[in-house]
């Protein structure tokens, strides 16, 4: 039997592509419109370099931190993602892997497993919700998360519902019925391992979203039914953010998808305890800059008031180090762990987290640090015009956008 361990996230993605039906793999690649933002998320990290030391290095590597009220062994959290039909155990497998590595996870409203099962597998789980339906339905889902023992709440409220991908969107059935089986049969026949994993459970992939209802066991909508309801819901206001924050109480509350300084300040005013600088993996408004480009300005503006995280484009431990050096408290990963889940189930997710931990440790050694708390812009080579100061107040904002930042310039 071939070695199931992989040495990079890129290799996990290659294995996922070989294992998954074309449509399932395409759904994970995703991106919107021309894919500019998804590409920039990766390209931006490649533009940043390191400024390593030569001697006096140490093998001590302190990576533990505290995020959203949770002590974690490394500054890498699982980002909430949608239906994870790449593996029969889905989000439960991800939760177990994260727990085994001592870190927390976000669970999506669009997940395929009920929050009660996932939180039981990893008590360090934050429930993520979209603004779908009216306040009564939102309140019911918040209360369900509270009863289930969610460690925090993540609100994702910005979405442009962009349509169309230049490379074509994969066929995703609304439910697994005879028509879906007929259309998918040629793809599935070429991927027997994926089919066998589900066959062993005697269950077909479940395309319903059980966390979109307020009561456990209530009939869950399909992914597309929930998406349609989401599209028809009124867009939330900052008053809605403050209401949701108050409803959740004193527990940790993150607003995900903040790219602008002015929005970050309004989020602080609304009472959030954390924000994630994020463009949703390039799946929202195409042409939005990479999250890592917007991170420094946001962290400088509100990092002393709330925890600032970022997600988008993390593929190796060095990327984690770069994000922390530019002001992030921690990072969240999405596609990286999904590739691991597709490649080797729960063990594959653990494999990805191990790679990021080890890569971060190597960066700390090379940069002459013993703790992630010592990372700073001085550790990086930042090219001119790298940062994007979106929504920054003051007449000096254009000049700030032309600045290379506080790191070493290329």
From TrEMBL:
User: Which SUPFAM superfamilies does the annotation name?
Assistant: FMN-linked oxidoreductases
- What's a Pfam family in this record? FMN_dh
What range(s) does the FMN hydroxy acid dehydrogenase domain occupy? 1-385
Recorded coiled-coil stretches: none
Q: Where is this region: Disordered?
A: 388-410
Which residues take part in binding glyoxylate?
Answer: 165, 280
Keyword Flavoprotein recorded: yes
Q: Which GO terms describe its molecular function?
A: FMN binding; oxidoreductase activity
Query: This chain belongs to which protein, by name?
Result: Alpha-hydroxy-acid oxidizing enzyme
The active site is formed by 280
Query: What organism does this protein naturally occur in?
Result: Modestobacter marinus
What's the name of its gene? Answer: lldD1
- NCBIfam families to which the protein is assigned, alphabetical: actino_HemFlav
* InterPro entries in the cross-refs: Aldolase_TIM, Alpha-hydoxy_acid_DH_FMN, FMN-dep_DH, FMN_HAD, MftD
């Amino acid at each position: 039997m071939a070695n199931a361990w992989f040495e990079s996230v890129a290799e996990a993605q290659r294995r996922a592509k070989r294992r998954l039906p074309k449509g399932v793999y395409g759904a994970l690649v995703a991106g919107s419109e021309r894919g500019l933002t998804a590409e920039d998320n990766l390209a931006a990290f490649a533009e940043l370099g390191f400024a390593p030391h030569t001697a006096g290095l140490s093998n001590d590597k302190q990576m533990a931190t505290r995020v959203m009220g949770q002590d974690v062994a490394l500054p890498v959290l699982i980002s909430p993602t949608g239906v994870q039909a790449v593996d029969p155990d889905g989000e439960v497998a991800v939760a177990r892997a994260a727990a085994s590595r001592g870190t927390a996870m976000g669970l999506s409203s669009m997940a395929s497993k009920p929050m009660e099962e996932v939180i039981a597998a990893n008590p360090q789980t934050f429930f993520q919700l979209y603004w779908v339906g009216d306040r009564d339905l939102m309140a019911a889902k918040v209360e369900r998360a509270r009863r289930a023992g969610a460690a925090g709440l993540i609100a994702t409220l910005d979405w442009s519902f962009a349509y169309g991908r230049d490379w074509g969107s994969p066929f995703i059935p609304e439910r697994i019925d005879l028509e879906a089986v007929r259309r998918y049969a040629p793809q599935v026949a070429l991927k027997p391992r994926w089919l066998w994993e589900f066959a062993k459970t005697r269950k077909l992939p479940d395309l319903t979203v059980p966390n979109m209802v307020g009561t456990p066991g209530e009939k869950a909508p399909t992914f597309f039914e929930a998406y349609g309801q989401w599209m028809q819901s009124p867009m939330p206001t900052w008053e809605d953010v403050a209401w949701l924050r108050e409803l959740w109480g004193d527990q940790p509350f993150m607003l995900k998808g903040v790219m602008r300084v002015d929005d970050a300040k309004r989020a602080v005013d609304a009472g959030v305890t954390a924000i994630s600088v994020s463009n949703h993996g390039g799946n929202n408004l195409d042409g939005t800059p990479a999250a890592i480009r917007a991170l420094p300005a946001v962290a400088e503006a509100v990092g002393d008031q709330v925890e600032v995280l970022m997600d988008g484009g993390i593929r190796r431990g060095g990327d984690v180090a770069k994000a922390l050096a530019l002001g992030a408290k921690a990072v969240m990963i999405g596609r990286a762990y999904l590739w691991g889940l597709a490649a080797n189930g729960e063990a594959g997710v653990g494999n990805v987290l191990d790679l990021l931990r080890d890569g971060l440790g190597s960066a700390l050694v090379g940069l002459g640090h013993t703790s992630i708390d010592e990372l700073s812009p001085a550790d990086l080579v930042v090219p001119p015009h790298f940062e994007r100061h979106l929504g920054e107040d003051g007449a000096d904002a254009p000049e700030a956008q032309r600045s290379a930042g506080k790191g070493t310039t290329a």
